[in-house]
Amino acid sequence: MESNKAYWNERARKNGHTGWNDLVIYYYDQKVRLNTIDYILKKTMLNRGGLSLDYGCGSGDFSEVLSKYFSEVIATDISEIVLSSAKKNNKNSNATFVAFDDKIFDNDYDLILSITVLQHILNDKDLEKLLEKFAKSLKEKNGKIILLESIAIDEMDTMENDYLKIRSKKKLLEIIKNSGLTVESCYDFYNPLSKDSLKFKKLYNNIFIRILKILSRLDVYFMKKILKRVIDIYVGQDIGIIYSESTTKILILKNL
What we know:
alpha/beta; eight-stranded mixed β-sheet; two-stranded antiparallel ribbon
């Protein structure tokens, strides 16, 4: 746990967030992810209110989305640096940012949101135990979990390094079932690095964007804000749900 904390703190120190290292990918992908989670919540959260958990909240962007649909949002992260940044950036009075602690599972949540967190839990049993905690802290009636995770469609494409484990779809579903959860619905989600992500590639190869990216990397005044604003406008309200098999999935889980 401590080595993981050190790794994510260093990522946060270096980038100001814990997402993609490449700023263009990060800003584009984050905007699409936020649009998509907002779209799913709009469709599924017909009765607004209640309590939600943003598990692995990062810079707090998703906590802001949750704040629109829930009376109270609890957001937590392993990195104190990124959590401190999230507290400063999020002005919603119904969002509380807390250091990671098992006490967060003492609540009854209407929704638990976790964006690309589980793929960084390398041990299958540890992941199963975490999902069991998720399951036990869900409200018995209509409690939901939303996960966005990378998976391997083909068993041969599974991979693991010191901080990332891409499991097969079969293995992930097995862990979910063993934890007392079941998949209510599943969305295939685009991947910016896929050859089919033509809109992203058009942006990424744009000379103006490349110049902004270089200036941002050099910490030229306001360049990061300008780059983010341009990309936000370019993405607009686009969502990332696609209708072909993808290595990125959004899973909606509920208790068995």
